[in-house]
Structure formats: structure tokens, C-alpha cells
């Protein structure tokens, strides 16, 4: 497990850079230094880096030698036998090495585009033109005589009647007498994303030097896993990631699928999944409450249920009940599309805890949602004589105090609330089950906080955003998963239409018709960026327009985040009671609102929403027996915009939509919040590498559950603790 480097100059340790030579031990001249580095060495102490470059690298997230070693090239070029200029043909994507023959800058027409043209030539005698618009700055970069590697598309230029590359990527190749020239030509060359002034060429030199000093490293992966997966060893992989051997398939390299890539990606996922598996195993080992699911409990549940549960609800409840019956804490994620009936399942689980003499807490991300859950539970529990309490920030101090008192005394079995539930002075008499709705809005820390309020209560996390499997495996890998994949019976699929802004009048006439039939309607505006102000203004304006001009005879209400909580509640309750026909709102209504009589969801500027969010909003209608509609109003769309809207119109499958959203926006954006607990992966990418993730996960699971030996397991745990715990936020591994 030792990743320490082999020491080349044992008497010199972590020597600072060139200009600090005064501090060097006697006899070690600064130019001949070979600095002993290991993976933990801060880059700024590495020869050739120093404080200035060190800062540039750090801005890119590269702080240590280990970070740099894992900095994978984003592309590779085969510069072994590059074509000569004379061999190039229009249409191909090519690398060519040539020298600058002449440069010319010109102002193009009235628009002053500042065209910079360079003629390149090589020994074949042929010439090719490079053109850069706004390329004036290149006058200080490219000068006649310089050797340059160019990469780009070869085209035919009708002006010069010759070959041209528009805005090619270029790299100046040092003279042959540069001792490191061999790194940049005559081989498969790695291309790195520059970090400020640290160019791809500097990266190549730095990484090469470090690889030289590191020497053969021992392989951290357990040999059993490496053998079974036939993985290349660590050291070879690291070297070949940066400097592939001659003859390596260029396409495999550029697809991140060379043997080196595969192994390093696998390894990253493997440790992550091992960490998550350990965390799960840990929780399972802790003592917890063994809730009994006896006849009495079953009777209570039956008495509460307003409908027959769907098959999926039954299956999921069984999974939950089994977890709750075990003498260890449950950590389970309950996933289900909007309207699939998760809340009902949560209520059943609550009864199991309550009938066993414990309290249940339900944590919701917003007051509206908490309030709504509160009323939902109250309605359900009334029939069986159970009390429910609500605790939210907007309540008066004395009101809160009173509730805390009865909760602390164990006088209410069920408490619903927002973050207010997490405050220090909220104490439960016997918290047995914590239900967390819309998990991704709460950080992992908050999950732990609530968990600490009981001895070790069972935790059920509910999410209404279907989470693509790859994300679920990485973000929620420490939780067991239950999925409700069936909607309650009698639901009619929602009809989704796309309408451009100029046809909005037709939308209003449709809304009018629906209201005429007794239905209700939402009109939603996106919250742009962090500020709700703009959306609020748009919503206010539209509220005025709709209530004064379009529907003067109807009740049009306005809801936005700046309203006081009790005002919000008042509006929501009027809508719920059917006193409001049209509710104009910002996205505060996104989660959980349940008004079965609402049948139309009009989403303005729909192109500004994420797909998962659109799907959430759409889920606010189609909750009753009436045919429901979702109208997506947009401006003119670009190609991605069209694809996104088309996905919404064509599909009502939340999991499919989530996958597309993930693909189009990337994992960072998916949850729309930084606090999502996404681990930072260095070389692996959960979208590109999902099949490797699956393999790594199953290997990790096997390894943790059936380790080849206790020593091997111990070694792995130590390795994770030393190298991965902080990065992956794996609290308490092993
Ligand atoms: P989710 O929380 O998954 O979005 P809810 O639990 O809010 O879904 O349920 C959506 C609606 O469907 C609610 O009005 C709920 O009462 C109703 N519902 C839930 N389960 C069933 C069922 N088995 N049969 C009929 N209606 C159901
Ligand atoms: Mg819900």
C-alpha cells in the first residue's frame, strides 16, 4: 500500500525551487536537484513549478503530485508518423508539423475582424494556411522559422485556392537541442487542458519529470481483484496514461478506453464503492431498534389506508418493514416518480414505529411542503386516533416552545417539520424513525444531525426526483434503495404540449375553458439563477395581466418566495379549497403540492428549467380523475433546447427524463445545488464510464462482503482512510 517514491537522492528532501537556492543544503546545486516527491508533495515544491505556477495549478484543483498524476490528458495526438503538408486532403481531421513560413494580419472589411493568417510549410514544399479571426495576439506568439504542431480540420480555401485550417489548435515545438523535445514530437503526445499559463507543453514536461523521480510504485488494488479483472498494474497505467507506448490504438486513448484508462477509472470507482459499502456495513452493525410488524400493527395500517396500495407500494413497504424489523438501523432511499404514492408508504412506516412505542419525525425542505405533509398525515391519522404536530420556522416562539415540550415529553408520536426540527433544543422522547423528504436539498450532515436525535433511529429518505442509477450508485451508494415504479390506478397520462410565446393567447383560451369546466390551473415562472426577484416580477406582472385583462371574472392568485410563510399558506389553502381558479407562481410550488382538481400546468420560459424540474412541476397536475395538461411555453429554441422540450413532450417516465437531463447538463448541475454530496472524481466520469462503474461496484461489494483475507480487508480500509475518505466525504470508514 505504499505509494511513496523510491528515493533517488536520499540526502535531499523536498527542496524548494530554483530561486530559493540559499536554503539548499551544501553541495546540492539548484540546477542538478532531483527532488524527492511522493503523492502528497505539494506541487509548488516540485522542481519547475514554484509559487506562481503552483497557484495557477491550484486554481485548477491541482494541489499535490497525486492530483497532477491523475490529471488525464483530454486528447492524444499521434505525432509518430504525421503526414507531410503535401499529403493532406480537405475534409480530414489531422495533425501536421510544419514551420511558420510567413505571417500576415489584416483588417477584414468594415467589421474589422482582425484576421491573422499564417502560412506554414514543411520539407514537402507544400504550404497550408492557418487562419484566426481576432487573432492579433498571435503576432507576439508565432514568428517565421518556428516549428509548430497544428491540429484541426483541413479545408479548401477558395480565397487562396489552397488548403486552410481555421482556428487550428497549435503548439510550438522546441528546437531539437531542447533535451525534452522528444516529449512533444515523434510519439503519441498527450494534450492537456491548460491551467492559465501552464500550457499543455509545460504539463508534459512536469509530469514526465515527476514520473521519472517516482519510479515503480506498489499497486494499491487488492491482487485478487486485479487478477480477476485482468487489470494492468498501477505504475504502468499511470505512465501510459500520460505517455502511451508506440502503437497504442489512438481511438481507444481518445475514448478513455486504453488499458491504462480502464484500470485507473476502475480503481477510482472501486475505492469509492468500497467506501460506500463499508459505510453501509458499519451502519448495519450498529445496534438499532427491532420494530415488530405484528397483527396489531397490520390492523392499524389497514384502518388508516384510504385506498388499496398498489403492488409497488406493497413491495416497497415490505422492504422497509424488513429493515425496520432488523435489530440494526435502516438507511433506505425510497425513490418514485411524482405522484407514485411515496407519502402513503411513509405513513405506513410511521405507524410501524409508533405502534412499537416510538416517535416518528418527517423532515421537509420547505414550509409549504411540511405544512402539506402535516395536513396529509393529520387526515390519515385522524381515523386511527393519532396526533400529529407541526414545527416550522415561522411559528411564534411560544408556539414552537409548546410543541417542543410535548415532543420532548413523548406526547405526540408524529412530528412534521422543516429545518426547525434540526435545532439543538429539539429533543425527542424516543425517536425511532426519521423520514427525510427530498433528500438532495439536505446535506449529508443534516441527515446525520437528525439521526443523532434518536439512539440510532431508522432513516427513510424519500426523493421525488428520480435519480439515474449511476448517480444513485455514487451519491446514495451507502443507502439501500426501494423504487415505486407504478402509479396508482386510474391516472390518465398528462398531455404535454409545446407552444411558442407568440401563441400564448391560445393557451389562455384553453385555460379559460378548463376553468369553465370547474378545473384549476397553475402558471409558473422560472427562478433565474440565485435571485427570485426577476421571476417574482414576471409573475407579478402576469398576475396583473391575467387578473385584470384576460380573466377579470376569475380568481387569480399570486404565490412567490418573498411572501411571508403565513401568506403563502393562506394562498395555498385558498387554492386547495378551490377558491382560486388560477395560481400564478414562481417555482416555490415545485415540490409536493397536491391539488387533485388542478388540471393545467402552464410553464413560462420552460427552456430555462432543468428537465427534472419540469417533470416535477408537471407532476403537480394529473393527480385526480380528470384529464390533465402541461403546456411548455418557450421562446425560440436552439438544438439542445429543442431536444430537451421534445423529451418532455414525448416521455412521462421520470427515470428516462432524469437520464437525459444528466446527459445534457452533467452531474454537477443535475441536483442544481453544490451541496449534493457528489464525490469529486478525478479521471472517472459517471456518464461516460457507467459500465465500468457497474463492474467496480460489484467487485467492491464482493470484496467488502467476502474479503479474501482479513489482512487484505484491513489494508484496503487503511488505504481508503488515508487516501479517499476526505475526498469522498466518507465519514467514519472502517
Ligand atoms: P408522491 O409523494 O410519490 O409524489 P403522493 O404520496 O403525494 O405521491 O401521492 C400522490 C397522490 O396519489 C395523493 O393524492 C395520494 O393520496 C394518492 N395515492 C397514493 N397512493 C394511492 C393508491 N394506492 N391508490 C390511489 N391513490 C393513491
Ligand atoms: Mg410527495
Structure, briefly:
This protein is α/β, with parallel strands linked by helices.
CATH fold group of the largest domain: Rossmann fold
The largest sheet, given as strand count, sense and whether it forms a barrel, is:
7 strands, parallel
Q: Strand tally, please? A: 21
Nearest-angstrom radius of gyration?
31 Å
Which geometry do the CA atoms define?
Answer: globular
Neighbour order of strands in the largest sheet:
11-12-10-13-14-9-15
Mean pLDDT: 84
Number of helices: 24
Helix and strand composition category: alpha/beta
Q: Tell me the name of the CATH class of the largest domain.
A: Alpha Beta
Key attributes of the depicted protein:
binds adenosine-5'-diphosphate, six-stranded parallel sheet, 734 residues, 21 strands, alpha/beta, single chain, binds magnesium ion
Please describe what this structure looks like.
- The protein is of the alpha/beta class.
- It folds into 4 domains: 138 residues, no CATH class; 106 residues, Nucleic acid-binding proteins (OB fold (Dihydrolipoamide Acetyltransferase, E2P)), CATH 2.40.50.140; 190 residues, Rossmann fold (3-Layer(aba) Sandwich); 157 residues, 3-Layer(aba) Sandwich (Rossmann fold).
- The protein has 24 helices and 21 strands.
- It has a 7-stranded parallel β-sheet, sandwiched between helices. A 6-stranded parallel β-sheet has the order 16-21-20-17-19-18, sandwiched between helices. The chain has a 5-stranded mixed barrel with strand order 2-3-4-6-5.
- Helix 7 crosses helix 22 and helix 9 packs parallel to helix 10.
- The site of adenosine-5'-diphosphate has 16 residues, from helix 10.
Amino acid at each position: 500500500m505504499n505509494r511513496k517514491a523510491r528515493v533517488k537522492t536520499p540526502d535531499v528532501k523536498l527542496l524548494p525551487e530554483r530561486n530559493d537556492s540559499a536554503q539548499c543544503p551544501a553541495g546540492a546545486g539548484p540546477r542538478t536537484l532531483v527532488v524527492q516527491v511522493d503523492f502528497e508533495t505539494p506541487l509548488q515544491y516540485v522542481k519547475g513549478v514554484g509559487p506562481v505556477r503552483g497557484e495557477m495549478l491550484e486554481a485548477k484543483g491541482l494541489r499535490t503530485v497525486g492530483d497532477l498524476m491523475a490529471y488525464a490528458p483530454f486528447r492524444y495526438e499521434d505525432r509518430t508518423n504525421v503526414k507531410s503538408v503535401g499529403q493532406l486532403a480537405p475534409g480530414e481531421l489531422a495533425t501536421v508539423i510544419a514551420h511558420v513560413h510567413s505571417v500576415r494580419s489584416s483588417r477584414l472589411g468594415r467589421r474589422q475582424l482582425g484576421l491573422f493568417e499564417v502560412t506554414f510549410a514543411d520539407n514537402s514544399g507544400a504550404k497550408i494556411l492557418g487562419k484566426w479571426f481576432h487573432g492579433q495576439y498571435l503576432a507576439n506568439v508565432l514568428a517565421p522559422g518556428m516549428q509548430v504542431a497544428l491540429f484541426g480540420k483541413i479545408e479548401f480555401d477558395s480565397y487562396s485556392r489552397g488548403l486552410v485550417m481555421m482556428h487550428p489548435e497549435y503548439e510550438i515545438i522546441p528546437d531539437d537541442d531542447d533535451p525534452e523535445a522528444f516529449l512533444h514530437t515523434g510519439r503519441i503526445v498527450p494534450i492537456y487542458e491548460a491551467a492559465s499559463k501552464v500550457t499543455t507543453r509545460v504539463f508534459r514536461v512536469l509530469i514526465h519529470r515527476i514520473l521519472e523521480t517516482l519510479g515503480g510504485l506498489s499497486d494499491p488494488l487488492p491482487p485478487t481483484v486485479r487478477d480477476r479483472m485482468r487489470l494492468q498494474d498501477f505504475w504502468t497505467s499511470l505512465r501510459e496514461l500520460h505517455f502511451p507506448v508506440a502503437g497504442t490504438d489512438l481511438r481507444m486513448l481518445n475514448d478513455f478506453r486504453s488499458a491504462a484508462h480502464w484500470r485507473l477509472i476502475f480503481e477510482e470507482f472501486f475505492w469509492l464503492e468500497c467506501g460506500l459499502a463499508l459505510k453501509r456495513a458499519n451502519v448495519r452493525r450498529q445496534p438499532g431498534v427491532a420494530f415488530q410488524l405484528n397483527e396489531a400493527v397490520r390492523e392499524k395500517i389497514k384502518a388508516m389506508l384510504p385506498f388499496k396500495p398498489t403492488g409497488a407500494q406493497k413491495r416497497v413497504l415490505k422492504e422497509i418493514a424488513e429493515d425496520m424489523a432488523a435489530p440494526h438501523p435502516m438507511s433506505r432511499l425510497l425513490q418514485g416518480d411524482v405522484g407514485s404514492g411515496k407519502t402513503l408508504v411513509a405513513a405506513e412506516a410511521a405507524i410501524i414505529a409508533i405502534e412499537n412505542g416510538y416517535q416518528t419525525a418527517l423532515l421537509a425542505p420547505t414550509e409549504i411542503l411540511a405544512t402539506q405533509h402535516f395536513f396529509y398525515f393529520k387526515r390519515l391519522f385522524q381515523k386511527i386516533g393519532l396526533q400529529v404536530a407541526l414545527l416550522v420556522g415561522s411559528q411564534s416562539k411560544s408556539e414552537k416552545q409548546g410543541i417542543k415540550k410535548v415532543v420532548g415529553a413523548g406526547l405526540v408520536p408524529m412530528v412534521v417539520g422543516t429545518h426547525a426540527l434540526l435545532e439543538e433544543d429539539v429533543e425527542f422522547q424516543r425517536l425511532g424513525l426519521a423520514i427525510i423528504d427530498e433528500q438532495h436539498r439536505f446535506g449529508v450532515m443534516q441527515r446525520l444531525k437528525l439521526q443523532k436525535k434518536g439512539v440510532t433511529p431508522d432513516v427513510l429518505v424519500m426523493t421525488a426526483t428520480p435519480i439515474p442509477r449511476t448517480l444513485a450508485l455514487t451519491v446514495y451508494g451507502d443507502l439501500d434503495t426501494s423504487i415505486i415504479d407504478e402509479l396508482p390506478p386510474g391516472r390518465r397520462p398528462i398531455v404535454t404540449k409545446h407552444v411558442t410565446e407568440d401563441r400564448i393567447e391560445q393557451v389562455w383560451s384553453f385555460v379559460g375553458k378548463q376553468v369553465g369546466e370547474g378545473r384549476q390551473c397553475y402558471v409558473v415562472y422560472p427562478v433565474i439563477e440565485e435571485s427570485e426577484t426577476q421571476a417574482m416580477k414576471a409573475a407579478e406582472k402576469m398576475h396583473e395581466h391575467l387578473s385584470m385583462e384576460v380573466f377579470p371574472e376569475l380568481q387569480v392568485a399570486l404565490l412567490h418566495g418573498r411572501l411571508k410563510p403565513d401568506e403563502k399558506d393562506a394562498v395555498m389553502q385558498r387554492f386547495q379549497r378551490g377558491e382560486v381558479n388560477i395560481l400564478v407562481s414562481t417555482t416555490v410550488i415545485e415540490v409536493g403540492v397536491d391539488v387533485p382538481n388542478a388540471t393545467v400546468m402552464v410553464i413560462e420560459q420552460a427552456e430555462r428549467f432543468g428537465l427534472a424540474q419540469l417533470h416535477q412541476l408537471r407532476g403537480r397536475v394529473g393527480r385526480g380523475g380528470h384529464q390533465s395538461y402541461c403546456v411548455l411555453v418557450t421562446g425560440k429554441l436552439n438544438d439542445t433546447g429543442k431536444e430537451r422540450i421534445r423529451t418532455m413532450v414525448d416521455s412521462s417516465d421520470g427515470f428516462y427524463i432524469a437520464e437525459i437531463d444528466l446527459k445534457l447538463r452533467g452531474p454537477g448541475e443535475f441536483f442544481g445545488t453544490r451541496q449534493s454530496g457528489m464525490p469529486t472524481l478525478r479521471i472517472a466520469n459517471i456518464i461516460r464510464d457507467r459500465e465500468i462503474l457497474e463492474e467496480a461496484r460489484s467487485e467492491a461489494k464482493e470484496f467488502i462482503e467476502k474479503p479474501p483475507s482479513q489482512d487484505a480487508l484491513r489494508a484496503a480500509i487503511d488505504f481508503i482512510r488515508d487516501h479517499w475518505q476526505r475526498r469522498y466525504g466518507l465519514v467514519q470508514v472502517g
